[in-house]
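Final report, Chapter 2: Outcomes

The project's central promise was a pipeline that accepts a single protein chain and returns its three-dimensional structure in a standardized token representation, suitable for archiving and comparison. That pipeline is now operational. To close this chapter, we reproduce one record exactly as it appears in the project archive, with the input sequence first and the structure output second.
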Amino acid sequence: MKICRYRTGAGEPVRVGLVRGEHVHDVTAVTDTLPDVRWPYPPGDQFIAHLDRLRPLMEDLADRTPGLPLGAVLLANPVANPGKFVCGAGNFEEVLAAGGHPRRLGLLFKMTSAAAGSSDGVTLRWPERTTFHEMEIAIVIGRTGTEIPAACALDHVAGYCIGLDMTMQGPEFPSFGKSFDSYGVMGPWLTTRDEIADPDALAFRLAVNGEDRQVDSTRRLVLGIADLVEHAASVMTLHPGDVIFSGTPPRSVGPVVPGDVMDAWMEGLGAMRVQVVAGPGRKTPLDGMEPAALTS
């Protein structure tokens, strides 16, 4: 099953869709069956938490709903309320060969306000600085758990998306550079786990302005999908809608500038086009401060 969130036009409300072929079928009505919640709200995305129950309802509704061409809608981030973004670090073979290991390096984090869909594009708020693309598989958690062993980790996965873990380069803490609005692109939709026989064997490609930047496979991850879930759950509780970005091979990260167009494709997960636009530039009090003032 391929589940998306979409708008029929700029400024229109976000709807829930079931993707079949080249069409999306409006199944928003299934959200009316979600339980009412009151403060203190339960952790996690409630749609993802109840996905197993919603699936047959969505299939039935899609059978009775005319489809819209995918090209006629604007795709939003498929996870409405991610609780946290966890980013794999040093999780490719070349980092291991250089003496690093993702279990030693730990994990990085991105604020969930960075979440964006393919139609939102990426805004370089500080275009005078360098931002790198990092394409990877995004693992969407479907069931609460902690201290999850790898042997049953996939039971806690709802599905997968293409992820663009955009990262501004510089002296700031890495999680700061990952957390600008729109720097957590996911899409084009959520592909449920049952659709992907082996998430550790997916080819992927990222092109910028038609030029290949990343051509790789999830086969080269040091920690595969189950091991990544185990790694994250060894230090934190995972909730439905939490997202783990797998990590990117250092050899294939690269800069983007305003006006660039990124085309991302991953086997089994689809393809999405993402525009890069300029933001206003840095407007914080740091601008214009003398170097001496920065150390006082």
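Archive annotation: The chain has a mean pLDDT of 94.
This record, like all others produced under the grant, will remain available to the consortium after the project formally closes.
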